[in-house]
Design goal:
Elements: E1 3-7, E2 10-13, E3 18-25, E4 32-39, E5 46-51, E6 58-60, E7 68-73, E8 78-83, E9 92-100, E10 115-116, E11 120-125
Parallel strand pairs: 2-11
Antiparallel strand pairs: 1-3, 3-8, 4-5, 4-9, 5-6, 7-8, 9-10, 9-11
Length: 126
């Protein structure tokens, strides 16, 4: 039983930056693998990034590698996504997701995660 709430989305110009946050309610946040996904209108939900329970390992989609950084602060039960050098194609609703600690074989698959936030809109103008 974990509740996830995203925040920090908005409208930015291409080349700008945003930091998304995902606040988790619950007592076992530190035992969850966490990820970020995004979904643009008319498209399937796609993987963006994931981070291990203690933050020691991170994984990124090729489309955001070098521009986005995923991190977590377990003391604050919060997941972050720092987005730099934003492009119009980054426009989407961004979701955070979590799953109890396990292997990482399916970390990029939405169906692998047990808990989801409601999403926050990110719009990048040209």
């Amino acid at each position: 039983q974990v509740q996830l709430v995203e925040s920090g989305g908005g409208l930015v110009q291409a080349g700008g930056s945003l930091r998304l946050s995902c606040a988790a309610s619950g007592r076992i946040f530190s035992s969850y693998v966490m990820g970020w996904f995004r979904q643009a209108p008319g498209k399937e939900r796609e993987f963006v990034a994931a981070v291990s329970c203690r933050g020691g390992s991170t994984y990124y989609a090729d489309s955001v590698k070098g521009r986005f950084t995923i991190s977590r602060d377990n003391a604050k039960n919060t997941l972050y996504l720092q987005m730099n050098s934003l492009k119009p194609e980054d426009t989407a609703v961004y979701y955070c997701a979590g799953r109890p600690n396990g292997d990482y074989s399916d970390y990029a698959q939405p169906a692998w995660y047990d808990y989801w936030g409601q999403g926050t809109q990110v719009t990048v103008s040209s």
